Amino acid sequence: MKFALRRGFTLIELLVVIAIIAVLIALLLPAVQAAREAGRRAQCVNNLKQLALAAHNYHDVVGVFPNGQWYHPFNPSSGLGGTGNNASWIVLQLPQLEMTPLYNAVNFSFMWGDGVQGNYSGKFYLGQANKTVRITIVNTFMCPSDPSNPIHLLPHNDIGAADSEAGTSYLGVMGDNCLGCSGAADQNGQILNPCAQQGYRCTLPQLGDDSSDAPPGGTGVISRAGRSVGVRDILDGTSNTMMIGEQVMDRCNHNGWVHSNTSTGVTSLPLNFIKKPDPSPVNTWVWNYSFHSQHPGGGNFAFTDGSVKFIKNSINYDIYTAISTRARGEIVSADAY
């Protein structure tokens, strides 16, 4: 009785098969990564749409869009030019985001932490009454492409040095107002006039903050500490005016969804700007208080008409600043960005 001998793979043949499989994986992997990024980008767009829709629902109730000027009830200042800003524009529109229980958990008689700044000391109730809300991570406020730790320590004293806060990937667009304009250096030796130093426009007042004896200073839609803006104030058209943009949470430690001082950004520095040759420390806010994104090639922005558009890194700087301001009268074609 004869038996047929079965010939197995030679070592060379096995290596060829492995090489073919490796090539196929190498060809397939970018497509898989691109598909995943497309999914993350779609979720980011959805988050921005929810925030923009909530802002419009807030406008329907209050008559203006939410902003970062919520003064503590015991602030001795009038509504303008006071030293205290508190709850962010995101906090104010929590009910419109169907997060009423989280909104109701905020004790508006207290600041967000133990930090003492300006004339808070002795005039305000400070404490940790709102810590539970402050460290609450909300997925809607985070871009899935942002790899940052959603909880981080804060270097500033608005809330408390070395205290923690939940971050956000989405900042209100203040406009093209400048950042630090003093020309002095901070504790890290970084010059506090990045706009002028880099040759970019420097629109005063700093950060667009209002004062009691000056007209509205902010050029955008959502202020850090300024007058509220309504649709009637957006003379450049809602479809040509940005309202909310992306930020990478770990890029700037002044980042958090509960506080007005950590939830807005400016366009006086270009999209995804990083100081060269040496990136500035993340706690040097004047170099990072702008818009950044982990999406390849640019970032998502919600416009005031509720649409979400992808803005490329290569956008002309003048156009970028023009679509961040509400009433400059620029004529910008939609195909320019």
List the helices and strands and how they pair.
Layout: H1 11-62, H2 89-92, H3 100-104, H4 131-134, E1 151-154, E2 163-166, E3 170-175, H5 194-197, E4 242-246, E5 264-266, E6 298-303, E7 308-312, H6 317-322
Parallel strand pairs: 3-5
Antiparallel strand pairs: 1-2, 3-4, 4-6, 6-7
Q: What does the radius of gyration come to?
A: 24 Å
Number of domains: 1
Low-confidence stretches: 75-85, 118-123
Profile the largest sheet.
Answer: 5 strands, mixed
Q: Supply the number of helical segments.
A: 6
Mean pLDDT: 81
Compute the number of strand runs.
7
What is the helix fraction of residues, given as a range?
10-25%
Distance between the termini: 81 Å
Q: How are the strands of the biggest sheet laid out side by side? A: 5-3-4-6-7
Principal-axes shape call: globular
Q: What fraction of residues sit in β-strands?
A: 5-15%
> Would you tell me the structural class of the helices and strands?
alpha+beta
> SSE order in H/E notation?
HHHHEEEHEEEEH
Domain DUF1559: 33-316
Protein name: Prepilin-type N-terminal cleavage/methylation domain-containing protein
InterPro entries: DUF1559, N_methyl_site, Pilin-like, Pre_pil_HX9DG_C
Describe it:
The strands form two sheets. A five-stranded mixed sheet has the order 5-3-4-6-7, with helices on one face. The chain has a two-stranded antiparallel ribbon with strand order 1-2. The protein has one domain (35-336). The protein has helices at 11-62, 89-92, 100-104, 131-134, 194-197, 317-322; strands spanning 151-154, 163-166, 170-175, 242-246, 264-266, 298-303, 308-312. The longest helix has 52 residues, at 11-62. It is 22% helix and 10% strand. A hairpin with an 8-residue loop joins strand 1 and strand 2. It has six helices and seven strands. The N and C termini lie far apart (81 Å). With 337 residues, it is an alpha+beta fold. Residues 75-85 and 118-123 have low confidence and may be disordered.
